[in-house]
Amino acid sequence: MYVFQHNGQLSIEEFHAPFGGKLDPNNRWVALASIIPWEPLESRYAPLFSATTGAPAKPFRMAFGALYIQQRLGVTDRESVELITESPYLQFFIGLSGYQFTRPFDASMMVHFRKRIGPDLIKICNDMTKASGIALVKQLLSSLADECTEGENKELAAIELELGERPLSHDTSENWGTLMLDATCVPDDIPYPVDLRLLNEARETTEMVIDDLFKQVSDKVKRKPRCNRDKARNQFLAIIKKKKPRKSEIREAKRFQLNEIRRNLAAIDTLIHSGAVLLGLGSHLYRKLLVSSEVYRQQQEMYDADNCRTANRIVNLAKPHVRPIVRGKAGKKTEFGAKISISDDNGFVDLDRISWDNYNEANDLIQRIEQYKQERGYYPERVCADAIYITTENKRYCAEHNIRLSGRGRGKRVESPAESAEQQDLFKSDLRRRSVIEGRIGTSKRKYGLDLIMTKLVETSKSVIGMALFVMNAEKILRLLRLLFALFVCVYMVFASMNTGERHVKRLACI
Questions:
Q1: Distance of alpha carbon 170 from alpha carbon 434, whole angstroms
Q2: CATH class of this structure's domain 169-189+323-457
């Protein structure tokens, strides 16, 4: 059940602090709380719950705020709850009416928050927050424009340019703006997949299933099916501990593990025919059994064909959705995780596609440009993308819509007519501009947790990836607000030295 919070946007004056004092209105969490439109987002979150039955769910602001805090600070679920308990600013950010010494929720609720707030809802939050932040920055720009000097007006123009809004003086029939596209792999937290280790884990899973099923029919079956546990384990350790085992030794160890798994699966069928029920295993062990049987099928197929290729290859029992993503990067030819396509729309990052199966990101270019046109009403002036995006179809599409597609294709280079110095400088400028999206990817991995995804489920992993990009956009808005605040302080000091208190009061009223 979900209960709407009709108390409106909580102000810092209304936040009760039992130890006295008031919250700093310039704090980053207070500023961020004023940007996110909580009430419209809550109306989209409430339909996920029943209106009459069940215990009341945690409010949207508490759920989304907790996920934002965790992603921004890069901490675990338990540490996030501890930080919220210790900080009045974080408690104000998640919507509490006053500081409390007890935990607002248990750390296990973070998993439910990630399941409920999926990538679709995060994208809606991103769009609405971006629109709210841009409107606030525009309001502050208009209030400062009349009383700034020539140098300060240049700073205001630079801040306005970072918003990615087309100038009013620009021709409405022409394209405007820069769209940058790129794709990357977001690694999952799994050990490097080794076939022998995967087979050993599958064998141990089947042995646990045999133990549980035998307990169910121990009164009917007097003898537990035989398993060579110690021998299989010792043989696995003898190979895995070698620094450079021979290929023939690895193949022989695989053959032994496959034979053990095949015999264990046959013993499981015998126990089922004797009256054992798989539903009694529990959901976790039953799921691992299904994955183990598929791992056995794939590994047996590769063993018979003596190769390392199969369709939808499983590389981890706990995360069977993870696939090898061949990237060809320096030091990491293959990565294991989700492949994502992101775009930089004049400074704001969007998640265009996410998949655990490899795909050609060049197919996303036309769809992303059409989305740009739908959102803004005009096409971008240029698209900065990697060489893989420079296909014949994409070049034809961009030429039809008068879009400059920067970059060189991967095909055989054909001698082109001599370019002017201006065209060469423009081409080099586009290539330098494309490095911005590479920086966005590096920042998301180094600072916002996309270098290693710790969640196990598909839906929770999608939530973490979407939240990381949302944090990047929110931080951009906060940075613009800090620049405006610093500029406002500078203007205020100048006016204060000129004894223009009346203008200062007028400026405060506008802001």
A1: 24
A2: alpha beta
CA distances from 321 to 188, 198, 451, 458, 493 (A): 11, 15, 18, 7, 58
Burial bucket for residue 492 (CB in 10 Å: 0-12, 13-18, 19+) = middle
pLDDT digits (tens, 9 = 90+) for 29-77: 999 999 999 999 988 898 888 878 888 889 999 999 999 999 999 999 9
Global pTM value: 0.86
Per the DSSP assignment, residues forming a β-bridge with 180 are 344, 384
Phi, psi at residue 76, to the nearest 5°? -80, 175
Which residues, in sequence order, are bridge partners of residue 98?
16
Tokens of 363: 């197919």
> How far apart, in whole angstroms, are the C-alpha atoms of residue 417 and residue 497?
62
**pLDDT given for residue 510 in this prediction:** 44
Domain range summary for the chain, segments of one domain joined by +: 1-117, 169-189+323-457, 195-305
Angle at 137 between CA 383 and CA 45, to 5 degrees: 80
What string of H, E and C letters represents the secondary structure of 339-383?
EEEEEEECCEEEEEEEECCCCCHHHHHHHHHHHHHHHHCCCCCEE
Strands 382-384 and 404-406: parallel
CA atoms within 13 A on the CB side of 10: 21
Q: What is the DSSP letter of 35?
A: H
Contacts of residue 313, Cβ cutoff 8 Å, sequence gap at least 6: 298, 323, 324
String of DSSP letters for 228-284: -HHHHHHHHHHHHT-SS--HHHHHHHHHHHHHHHHHHHHHHHHHHHTT--GGGG-HH
CB atoms near residue 401 (< 10 Å)? 13
Average pLDDT score over residue span 281-295:
94
The Cβ of residue 40 has, within 10 Å, a number of other Cβ atoms equal to 12
- Distance separating alpha carbons of residues 277 and 217, to the nearest angstrom: 9
- Written as six digits, the tokens of 167 are 């100038």
Q: pLDDT digits over 366-395, tens only?
A: 999 999 999 888 899 889 988 889 999 999
Residue 8 predicted with pLDDT over 60: no
Helix runs in 102-246, H state only: 109-116, 119-145, 150-162, 195-216, 229-240
Rg of the chain over Cα atoms, rounded to whole angstroms, equals 29
- Measure the CA–CA gap between 207 and 290, rounded to whole angstroms: 14
Task: Please state, as a whole number, how many other Cβ atoms lie within 10 Å of the Cβ of residue 299.
Answer: 22
Distances (CA, A) of 511 to 152, 156, 227, 307: 17, 15, 75, 68
Q: Residue 201 and residue 207: Cα distance in Å, rounded?
A: 10
Phi/psi of residue 150, nearest 5 degrees: -65, -40
Whether 60 and 41 have beta carbons less than 8 Å apart is answered as yes
**Contact predicate 430/382, CB 8 Å:** yes
Closest alpha carbon to 122 in 440, 464, 442: 464
State both tokens at 397.
Answer: 């599409």
Query: From the centroid of its chain, how far is CA 236?
Result: 37
